[in-house]
Specification:
This protein is of the alpha/beta class. It has four domains: 2-75, no CATH class; 82-338, Aconitase, domain 3 (2-Layer Sandwich), CATH 3.30.499; 342-489, Aconitase, domain 3 (2-Layer Sandwich), CATH 3.30.499.10; 541-717, Aconitase, domain 4, CATH 3.20.19.10. The strands form six sheets. It has a seven-stranded mixed barrel, surrounded by four helices. Strands 7-6-3-4-5-20 form a six-stranded mixed sheet, covered by helices on one side.
């Protein structure tokens, strides 16, 4: 009979798994034993081998009831599952299938915010319906023309009118400020910036998204993601002197790669978590974006409470921990004691080596700050290293504190003076060099940066070599002129988290009341252009393979950042001049000449930023479909939102069979999408056909594509 019981469990475990309960063989074995135990005890099943077939059938019914009533119901949840369960409004916890969740908070920044608010206005919702929505000015702060200033004025007026808080220029980087002043454990947050997962450091379920998805959430709409798998990174031990949180996430990237987190949420746990402050945790969750992960998250514990108390927000604290019997799809163990200072080498965040492995390379520039490493503790460590010393004369050192709060505290305690005395150039509390807004290195130069990305050309200097390092490595190397292991400096500085931060929110403007909002005028400058025109999906698509690119194409490849381009984020026609400029400077003119085209890409296409401009600009130029080996999560969602068909090759080797400028055809594509029929790509030039995969598209996304994108879909459903 026990064998029958076991077989029964084997047969039904797939159904149980579909409810996100059983995810590995260990749990299956546990269920088998527990079920046997409960069945024997509760129902007194004895003399099992003499049961008739009828009695066995009755036993089966009883056993199923036991499983679901006594085992399944009480099965432990991960930290993420608890938050998702509390916010689920559509779908079921089936891995890979689409779920819809309620969003509590949103954030935007000015490089993506202008377009997001144009989209929000187009929806016709008079006031945001989230618990808290905040607009930050932190990207386009270089005022070299009227464009940025006009965008800031537009965003400020939209915020005033529609119930959004407005963080003025100079108040700090969105992720740093949101962590300090607005983040709440257990809440959901999406932001039009890929590094929104920074909020996971405080126990939020925080995710990057396209601006249109953020606009919909502000209007009270549901946010959809594929139900992710759960990865636990189990931290043991403690960080040794001169080793930092940056080295932890670099180690994770070394092991998992820039596409190793796709379709996953990363949860951090283990005794080592208790040794990390909230800013250190936020550094790790921030760079989780480089894994391609949906998000990363830490538990909300006594460390979180101490941080919120220091920010005067202890009432926002809630303890959120995974259940002790929570089950994960993947577990990775990292012994913190084993880590040493590391760096990500050019031109990808997962090309990680120890500083010893890289050696004493000459350094031309050091940049410290960004949303990854600009906290008070980071800045104090840097100041302690620089105090009483002088930056090497061959090195340009720039430092950007992450928020007004951090900068103010450095100014009051003398640490800012220590940095200036050493020869550092102090930048405003903004993204700055991280987004290519100033401080480009010299031609062929080597720049060490505490940032999160080192994509080719992102710094503003195409042939520069960018290394991603910790603040400790950066400061030590600035003094020596060479990549330096900070352990060579002797005793490490002992910097403690403050018991109380300086709190002054006078750079955050509250919105007008609903009554006052009626008289608020939205201010628009001449650089602000409308959303690109869309149209319903046609019966057939015939176009050339206008561009073929390789693996790990980033949003920086598709739509570059930098001081020359960022001011035109609300001007799609102007931006189109630079589309795919890193890959092929002739692309804009070639597709304009053709009138339309199809893009062929490799694996992990669209990784990096959440900027929807990487979809909107190709839409404007006439891109009808993007066919790749695989996509990054946010970008494929942005393509659908824009009405561009995203397919993957059913057989990856078919990628090699297509040449740039081959004539391609998607015949009866509307019928295929409408009726879930197999999609085939015809290569007219070569007389070949290739099967395509569209299983990553939900029925909702298919409906969006048929309408022409999310805006058209929303209008159609609101009639």
């Amino acid at each position: 009979m026990f064998s029958l019981i076991t077989q029964l469990l084997y047969n039904i475990r797939f159904a149980v798994s579909s409810k996100d309960i059983v995810r590995n063989e260990n749990l299956y074995s546990k269920l088998t034993y527990t079920m046997q135990k409960h069945a024997l005890k509760r129902y007194k099943i004895k003399q099992m081998f003499i049961f008739t077939l009828t009695k066995i059938a009755i036993c089966y019914k009883i056993l199923i009831s036991v499983i679901f009533e006594r085992i399944v119901v009480t099965m432990g949840l991960t930290l993420t599952e608890k938050i998702l369960k509390a916010h689920l409004v559509d779908g079921e916890f089936v891995k890979g299938q689409e779920i819809g969740i309620r969003i509590d908070q949103t954030l935007t920044q000015d490089a993506t915010g202008t377009m997001a608010y144009l989209e929000y206005e187009a929806m016709g919702v008079p006031r945001v319906r989230t618990e808290k929505s905040v607009a930050y000015i932190d990207h386009n702060t270089l005022q070299s023309g009227f464009e940025n200033a006009d965008d800031h004025r537009f965003i400020g007026s939209v915020c005033k009118k529609h119930g959004i808080y407005f963080s003025r220029p100079g108040n700090g980087i969105c992720h740093q400020v949101h962590l300090e002043r607005f983040g709440i454990p257990g809440k959901t947050l999406i932001g039009s910036d890929s590094h929104t997962p920074t909020g996971g450091g405080i126990g939020m379920l925080a995710m990057g998204a396209g601006g249109l998805d953020v606009a919909v959430a502000m209007g009270g709409g549901t946010y959809y993601i594929p139900m992710p798998t759960m990865t636990r990174i189990n931290l043991t031990g403690y960080l040794k002197p001169w080793v930092s949180a940056k080295d932890i996430i670099l180690e994770v990237l070394r092991r998992m790669s820039v596409k190793g987190g796709v379709g996953k949420i990363i949860e951090y746990g283990g005794e080592g978590v208790k040794t990390l402050s909230v800013p250190e945790r936020a550094t790790i969750t921030n760079m989780g974006a480089e894994l391609g992960a949906t998000t990363s998250i830490f538990p909300s514990d006594e460390i979180t409470l101490a941080f919120l108390k220091a920010q005067g927000r202890e009432e926002d604290w809630t303890e959120i921990l995974p259940d002790s019997d929570a089950v994960y799809d993947e577990v990775i163990d990292i012994d913190l004691c084993s880590l040493t200072p590391m760096a990500a080498c050019p031109h990808m965040p997962d090309k990680v080596k120890t500083t010893d492995e890289i050696g004493k390379i000459k350094v031309d520039q050091v940049a410290i700050g960004s949303c990854t490493n600009s906290s008070y503790v980071d800045m104090m460590k840097v100041a302690s290293i620089l105090k009483g010393k002088t930056v090497d004369p061959t090195v340009s050192l720039c430092i950007a504190p992450g928020s007004k709060q951090v900068l103010n505290m450095l100014a009051r305690n003398g640490a800012l003076s220590d940095m200036i005395d050493a020869g550092a150039r102090i930048l405003e509390s903004a993204c700055g060099p991280c987004i290519g807004m100033g401080q480009s290195p010299n031609s062929g130069g080597v720049s060490l940066r505490t940032f999160n990305r080192n994509f080719e050309g992102r710094s503003g200097t195409k042939d520069a070599s960018i290394y991603l390092v910790s603040p400790e490595v950066a400061a030590a190397s600035a003094l020596t002129g060479y990549l330096t292991d900070p352990r060579e400096l002797g005793e490490a500085p002992d910097v403690k988290m403050p018991e109380k931060f300086i709190i002054n929110d006078n750079m955050i403007e509250a919105p007008a009341t609903p009554e006052e909002a009626k008289n608020v005028e939205v201010l628009r400058g001449p650089n602000i252009k409308p959303f690109p025109a869309t149209e319903p999906l046609p019966k057939d698509i015939r176009a050339k393979a206008i561009l073929k690119v390789g693996d790990n194409i980033t949003t920086d490849h598709i739509m570059p950042a930098g001081a020359k381009i960022l001011p035109y984020r609300s001007n799609i026609p102007y931006l189109s001049r630079f589309c795919f400029g890193v890959c092929d400077e002739t692309f804009p003119e070639r597709i304009k000449a053709e009138g339309k085209g199809i893009i062929i890409g490799g694996a992990n296409y669209g990784q990096g930023s959440s900027r929807e401009h990487a979809a909107l600009v190709p839409l404007y130029l006439g891109v009808k479909a993007v066919i790749t080996k695989s996509f990054a999560r946010i970008h494929v969602a942005n393509l659908v939102n824009a009405g561009i068909l995203p397919f993957t090759f059913a057989n990856e080797e078919d990628y090699d069979k297509i040449d740039q400028m081959d004539e391609l055809e998607l015949s009866d594509i509307r019928d295929c999408m409408e009726n879930n029929k197999p999609v085939v790509l015809k290569n007219i030039t070569k007389g070949e056909e290739y099967k395509l995969n569209d299983s990553h598209l939900s029925q909702r996304q298919r409906a969006m594509l048929l309408c022409g994108g999310l805006l058209d879909y929303t209008r159609e459903n609101n009639k």
